[in-house]
């Protein structure tokens, strides 16, 4: 008579294979992250892959393919919370996006393994490794290319510093000079910089400008009576 701890050998063996595949592929993905000293390294990638595989395998064992599909949906959404934990914002820079995406892909590898698709799991793992390694030289090459401001979508702002009582005329003058230079303004804000000093900031509609033209506009504004200082800045998009 079977004991209380007797398991169905074929199903248990199938689960063991799925977990082994998830563990092995998660190790390969995590090793690359660990080598580069990322926030989420070897153990995290392995645990994500094995966990996804275990949950998907459990769903299949309990209710078949329908249960696996529901489980995969929860894995996809749930791994997002874990990925958010490795994303850090430092000033205008955001770090950890690639590591979070790698964890998400590790879950996909585990889900394939848990769904008894080990070959497909290998394909995804190879694609992840290729993205994190083979594309690195291309990324470095692109980053070394000088930015062409005329081809870069960005947010341009022109700021003038003036006294509080002359903020209105300074605002009108700022908009007038920019529109005369064919740079329409999408919005203007007045920000206090002290008891008697304010900064009028105009955001341009254009996402690409000629820096020499803006320099000329700023120089003209700075020479106007009542304007203490004039400058412009640019912020590139994500």
TrEMBL record:
MgtC/SapB/SrpB/YhiD N-terminal domain boundaries: 19-140
Gene3D superfamilies in the record:
3.30.70.260
What's the chief localization of this chain? membrane
Q: Name one Pfam family in it.
A: MgtC_SapB_C
Q: Which UniProt keywords apply?
A: Cell inner membrane, Cell membrane, Membrane, Transmembrane, Transmembrane helix
Could you tell me the membrane topology recorded for this protein?
Multi-pass membrane protein
The record places domain MgtC-like C-terminal at 156-232
Regions that span the bilayer? 12-30, 42-62, 68-88
Q: Where in the cell is it found?
A: Cell inner membrane; Cell membrane
**Summary of the function given for this chain in its UniProt record:** Virulence factor required for growth in low Mg(2+) medium and for intramacrophage survival. May be involved in regulating membrane potential by activating Na(+)/K(+)-ATPase.
Family from the record: Belongs to the MgtC/SapB family.
Q: What is this protein called?
A: Protein MgtC
